[in-house]
Amino acid sequence: MTRRTLLLSAAALALVTGCRASANAPVYLTPFGAPTRPFSPAVRVGSLIYLSGQIGTDAAANGAVVPGGIEAETRQTLENIRTVLTAVGSSMDKVVKCTIMLADMKEWDRMNAVYREFFTPGRLPARSALGANGLALNARVEIECIATV
Fold first, then answer.
1. pLDDT at residue 11 is higher than 70
2. What CATH number is given to the structural domain containing 132?
3. Could you tell me if residue 70 is inside a domain?
């Protein structure tokens, strides 16, 4: 190979590698304006969207956790997830993984009953669930997700 061919090959490789790296660069999504807390609601990397944990807060109630216990909180949490996913160009049908944190693992079955309503049978996301010693705003449940675009 000539010196010119080597330089052209190196330049082409740098261009291709640079394009690939920028396509996978994190994009910090803020569909509702600047965050008020120190995290992004969602981050897109390539074709994946990583959602921050959501709890059952209601914007109409000044961000307070909804009353009604684990069922009401789970429903509001999943509605909040749906809202963020829609705002960033995804949907509940594109969720591939959820992590669920419960203040009390004894509420797992009741949380599951509501959780099932939000996903298509046979297309359930992979999932982990764990007990937590305290969640933000004294919530009963927090759920974070990974989805595709």
1. no
2. 3.30.1330.40
3. yes
